Amino acid sequence: ATAAALTNHSVVLVLLTALNFLALPRSDCIVAEQLCLLDSICNATYRTLENCDLAKTRFVALDHDSRVRCLNAELYLGNSSLLHCKCHRRMKRQEHCLRIFWTVHSSMTDGYFNLETSPYENPAIEEHWKTDYNELAALVSDATNPCLKATHVCNLSKKCVRLRTDYASICTRGAGSEDMCDRRKCHRGLRNFFEKVPEDFTRRILFCPCQDELCGERRRKTIVPDCSFQYSTKPNCLWLLDSCLEDHICKSRLADFQQNCQPADTSPDGCSQHNQAACLQAYMGMIGTPMTPNYISNSSVEVSLWCTCESSGNQKEKCDQILGMFESNKCLGKQYVGELGMRHPQPLWAACSSTSPPCQRKTSPTSNLNLPSFSLKPFPLVLSLSTCLKSCFPS
Question: Where is the GDNF/GAS1 domain (predicted)?
């Protein structure tokens, strides 16, 4: 009788657990994993795939039978809710959710890494924050330095000033010295700031329009680049990519950036997804990862990674593609022009005609290249923003 009672109690607990999870959003990967673990076959298959993913992460060579088991497990889970699950940008246990996503989406075929799909939920259907930015901004007198004004507004918000002070304190400790700067903690502090502070604050701080170099310097130093961005020497961009792909958060942010900032020549806004806000959000998501981008100078709105393609050997084209995602990305470039408050009767790329020497088009090294395995499509030829900053947008 006691055994039967325990059995019935266990069944009730399982059913209640299942019902609780079913009541939550079905797109959540953590929910999908828990539902899978309640089923014995799905549980065993998922554990197999976890081992396959672990072997790949540790670069362990698998024999033929092991590879077949991994592929069969991946095919089986392709019929479960795990295949279509997503993660939310501000969710708790985000790293765990992303690990689940990449476990299911990590292909075991040779030399192939699929970053075509972002693990994050579509930002259009995510819950939007209600903020008091406008009320706080009304308390700050107009300043000639927009970046300084954005900082003053942030200082009036308890959460904004606290998280900004947190990362600034961490990142400035030993900044400029690789022996003293804790880049990992600095990156974590930056991610906390951009994830937990409403975008009304973060976007105005990061994308504030500037008319002079003093303002531009404040904007460029927003992320404390001496610690978060720069190394004593520029590493190869291929090494930077490898570091990113080994990290679930960076890999996820890169996939999100590729999806939402994918250029399209035929699109009026330059983006294949036609979502300017999503592109800028994806760009901000890269900050605080091994592939953190930043402004290249105090007088430019062009952004780049801190890396070089020198000594890339036969992978030079792939390396150029990595840099081109930021330096020559038409979608990202147009979003910057709009967000920074720059206006012109014609689009920047049309205004800078090839017949005007100061605004001659800069040939991108990334045009007409074969697509590397981590990318969606080759990024098209576009104009470097810094080339036309002074001549196309005179102060």
Answer: 29-109, 147-227, 237-331
